[in-house]
Write a structure and sequence with these properties.
- The chain is an alpha/beta fold and about 300 residues long.
- It has 11 helices and 8 strands.
- It starts with 19 loop residues before the first helix and ends in a 13-residue tail after the last helix.
């Protein structure tokens, strides 16, 4: 894995200690390079990158409102193309709230038009920037400030990757900060493709998930090892490729390590295990050797 030696984040920032997203963003920006323009919404990144007069991001960044990362990226792409700067990368960056919920309308519209940019969703499974409220990315049974003890999250996490695959975009993939080589490969692959590319990056959150900041990478790795967050790619909405088969690790290893799940009974943890098993089996039925080995449509 050969990454750019340049740093595209300034040292020192206002993110929480142990923030998984900053680990992932540092890697992603090294792959994207300095010839990149980002569209950033409100959220953990929007708040910290838009604080006047400082920002941790060294590349060009446009801060926009919560719901419009994909719309802003579409406009930036069009403007660059009109100026003859088609080689400049455009990346929209939004959290799960700005992707799964508030920003879904703009993202779906951009996918329908097959706009030519990368959309990076950093998924910490809640509205963490505003006080740990639930989003549709929050897992079943999780505590948040809007799903307190006695009213824990009662619906399952929205399957955003499958929603994007149904749009038949050229490329969609899940990634995790605990697997940097896989993350780098997927960002590099996305850069070679024309059209809308969607990257769903799981970023463990010590503040919202309630674990010690020194366990950030371990917690992200457990999500993959327990098959709760599988790593895979989808080309053109049809060709599924499994990035990793982690074997079998009980879901309770992951669930019991986070205080946001501390109110769950053993029987409820067993239900999470069953849902993880069902989801894994559904995914395996879709995985097959692609007819076209090329990663998505080319222009």
């Amino acid at each position: 894995m050969n990454l750019d030696t340049k740093e595209f984040l300034y040292p020192g920032h206002a993110f929480c200690p142990g923030c998984g997203f900053m680990i992932g963003l540092r890697t992603v920006l090294k792959v994207m390079g300095e010839n990149t323009v980002t569209a950033i919404t409100a959220g953990c990144l929007g708040t910290n990158s838009g604080l006047f007069p400082s920002s941790p991001i060294k590349i060009a960044a446009y801060n926009t409102v919560f719901e419009s990362a994909a719309a802003a990226a579409s406009g930036i792409r069009a403007a660059l193309d009109m100026k003859g700067k088609g080689e400049t990368n455009v990346m929209a960056i939004a959290g799960d709230g700005g992707t799964f919920d508030i920003g879904l309308q703009a993202l779906s519209a951009a996918a329908e038009r097959n706009e030519n940019f990368i959309f990076l969703c950093y998924d910490n499974e809640g509205y963490m920037n505003t006080g740990i409220q639930k989003s549709s990315a929050t897992p079943w049974g999780a505590w948040t400030t809007t799903t307190p003890q006695g009213m824990l999250k009662s619906s399952h996490k929205k399957n955003m990757l499958e929603i994007m695959a149904l749009h038949r975009i050229p490329y969609a993939a899940t990634a995790c900060i605990a697997y940097p080589e896989d993350l780098v490969r997927k960002v590099e692959r996305a850069k070679t493709i024309q059209g809308l590319r969607f990257l769903h990056l799981l970023v463990s959150c010590p503040s919202g998930w309630k674990f010690s900041p020194d366990k950030t990478i371990r917690m992200a790795r457990l999500a993959v090892e327990t098959r709760i967050f599988p790593l895979y790619e989808v080309m053109d909405g049809e060709h599924y490729e499994l990035s990793l088969d982690p074997g079998y690790h009980p879901a309770k290893e992951y669930i019991r390590a986070q205080a946001r799940f501390q109110y769950l009974s053993d029987e409820e943890v067993d239900e999470i295990q069953k849902e993880a098993d069902r989801s894994w089996e559904r995914l395996l039925k879709k995985v097959s050797p692609p007819k076209d080995k090329r990663p998505g449509r080319k222009t």
